[in-house]
Design a protein that fits this description.
protease, metalloprotease, five-stranded mixed β-sheet, globular, MATCAP, metallopeptidase activity
């Protein structure tokens, strides 16, 4: 009698260890690392759409009611106030690089596989003193390029040391950061921003009671704007091109613009002290514990970091002045009153002074 072969559980990982850093591989992302809005059948439906033209029928972890609440929240509101800025960036990239692949090749370098990327990540974590503080997992069907996750006691338990972090990365050709420079860029995004701010948050007096300190909720729109805006800016620090192409494409430009416009008013050390939004900074300025926090490698020289951000702002035509209208002109505070545009030659000269090369 033939034995029945057990069906392989795709969510079970294969594991390796590189100098104390655990690397795991999943064919299918475990449910606990999926958000409520993540499709459970992403790869299957993508294949059906691209190969056969079938309209995707996504299955979600969340119920329909939960999805309705998510999509009707403020975070999902469609806004157009920065659409001209995003369009301007996209057109500049198209004009300079021609194709998306041309931009990716110039910005992030040649493609590499996940084994090569793991070696780069290992060096990054050791160099920056975060080795042993998280594991790394590659998954073939992750719905994004990367995601920093943690599991542990609820915040009210006030046991930040009990949290276990894992960096989830997509092991697929779809991941535009699986490139020579790209893997360092996503490391600055996920580890240098999300992990560092989350880790430091556990050292702060507000960790288990944000309400007491008058801070925004962790899932608030304001905090998400600051979190993703900061991460978007840090993603291009090591990139050869400093255009905010992906933030513009995904319309995360709105998150980054506010930070770039307020560079002179932001205390970045306090901003990295925990999960705080720009609005929270005045409230935590005197209570934040700064002596024991970790800072990302690119923040060791604060003056150089801010200088990099200024160059990014200039290259992407982001200034504290009013946003350009859709026609390329500017408007004054009085509705409908046009203000004289800068000549194209002046604009070109100013942009030309800031190269998008590192």
């Amino acid at each position: 009698m033939k034995k029945k072969l057990k069906k392989k559980d795709k969510s079970q990982p294969t594991s390796t260890c590189k100098k104390g850093i655990a690397f795991k591989r999943f064919d299918q992302t475990p449910s606990k690392y999926l958000g409520k809005g993540d499709p459970l059948n992403l790869e299957e439906e993508k294949c059906q759409f691209l190969c056969h033209g079938k309209i995707p029928d996504f299955k979600f972890k969340a119920t329909e009611r939960q999805l309705d609440l998510i999509t009707s929240s403020k975070k999902c509101e469609i806004k157009h106030d920065l659409l001209p800025q995003a369009t301007w960036i996209l057109e500049k990239v198209k004009e300079k690089y021609g194709t998306g692949e041309g931009y990716l090749l110039h910005t992030y370098g040649q493609r590499i596989d996940s084994e090569q990327a793991s070696e780069v990540l290992k060096g990054y974590m050791v160099e920056n003193g975060v080795d042993g503080m998280m594991s790394v997992a590659w998954s073939k069907d992750l719905s994004c390029s990367g995601r920093m996750t943690w599991v542990g006691p609820c915040l009210k338990a006030n046991k930040p040391d009990a949290r276990k972090y894992r960096l989830m990365l997509k092991d697929s050709a779809d991941n535009c950061f699986l490139r020579e420079k790209g893997i360092l860029c996503i490391a600055d995004h996920e580890i240098g921003t999300h992990f560092i701010r989350s880790y430091n948050d556990g050292l702060q007096p507000w960790f288990s009671n944000r309400l007491k300190f008058g801070l925004q909720k962790l899932k608030s729109y304001s905090l998400q704007q600051t979190e993703e805006g900061l991460a978007a800016l840090n993603t291009v620090l090591k990139a050869r091109s400093k255009y905010l192409f992906y933030p513009a494409l995904l319309y995360y430009t709105a998150c980054a613009v506010d930070i770039l416009r307020k560079l002179d008013r932001i205390d970045f050390e306090v901003l990295y002290s925990g999960k705080v939004s720009l609005e929270d900074l005045p409230r935590v300025r005197h209570s934040a514990r700064l002596t024991s926090i970790k800072l990302p490698p690119f923040m060791k020289d604060k003056a150089a970091y801010i200088s990099h951000l200024r160059k990014i702002a200039l290259l992407n035509d982001i200034r504290a002045s009013p946003m350009r209208s859709g026609r390329g002109g500017r408007r004054s505070a009085k509705k409908g009153t046009k203000v004289r545009r800068r000549s194209q030659s002046v604009s070109a000269r100013r942009i030309g002074k800031t190269s998008d090369e590192t």
